[in-house]
Design brief:
With 225 residues, the protein is an alpha/beta fold. It has a single domain, classed as Glycogen Phosphorylase B (Rossmann fold, 3-Layer(aba) Sandwich), CATH 3.40.50. Helix content is 38%, strand content 16%. Helix 2 packs across helix 7. The protein is globular, with a radius of gyration of 19 Å. The C terminus is likely disordered.
Length: 225
């Protein structure tokens, strides 16, 4: 048999005549309490600065909002081969003072939980850990509906986040604008986002693995070997 993180990935191997299971990544570790009240005027993202994440699209989309929201900034946490080119792009767009690049931070969740929103502009993702973590801390999320199907499997539009077509800077900017301009929507997305903690709790995911690997055993009484 074979295991996949998303249904789209499973379907890609439909030609294989074997049993297949779809089981998402579990959420592990401790997450801070969801932020309540006013949020900092910061759009945040965190990921490896690599081609598949399409950060150039994120910068272009933020540029479309910049004039209308002069007190907002974009903060990107991560390292990778495209860091220098992204910094140069921000400067070319006249946004070098409003786009801030940070290294990864062990206290990241606590630092960003009061940001206005999280954005992912990826062209391809399986089950994005960054997206899951952003949801778990209650950030309103905007994600591209990218190849791999991870975002589509988790994000329920206008319930726990917003989905936009990939490689569409206008749509990405419009979704970010919608959250910025609608605090009630942002609060709804935030409250529903943290439900992912229960949906992907480690014990629940372990139970799914048990059911797949040892269906004849009682997951309530069995112990890991």
């Amino acid at each position: 048999g074979a295991f996949f993180q998303t249904e789209e990935n499973r379907d890609f191997y439909d030609y294989l005549d074997i049993q297949k299971w779809v089981i998402a990544n579990p959420l592990q570790g401790h997450y801070p309490d969801r932020h309540e009240g006013r949020r900092r005027k910061v759009i945040v993202s965190f990921a490896r600065l690599a081609k598949a994440k399409n950060f150039p699209l994120m910068l272009e989309s933020f540029a479309l909002l910049a004039a209308d929201f002069p007190d907002y900034s974009l903060e990107i946490y991560g390292e990778g081969p495209l860091k220098e080119s992204l910094q140069a792009q921000a400067k070319e767009l006249g946004l070098d003072s409003r786009v801030v690049f940070h290294p990864f931070d062990t206290a990241l969740h606590q630092k960003i939980k009061d940001c206005t929103l999280y954005v992912s502009s990826s062209d391809r993702e399986g089950m994005s850990n960054s997206m899951l973590e952003a949801l778990a801390i209650g950030l309103p999320c905007v994600c591209t509906d990218c190849a791999g199907g991870g975002a589509r499997a988790i994000i329920k539009p206008y319930e726990n986040g917003l989905l936009v077509p990939m490689r569409d800077k206008q749509a990405l900017a419009a979704a970010m604008r919608e959250i910025i301009e609608n605090p009630n929507l942002a609060e709804t997305l935030s409250k529903n986002a943290v439900k992912i903690r229960q949906d992907l709790a480690l014990d629940k995911i372990i139970s799914l693995w048990w059911q797949a690997l040892w269906p004849e055993q009682d997951t309530q009484t069995s112990k890991l070997p």
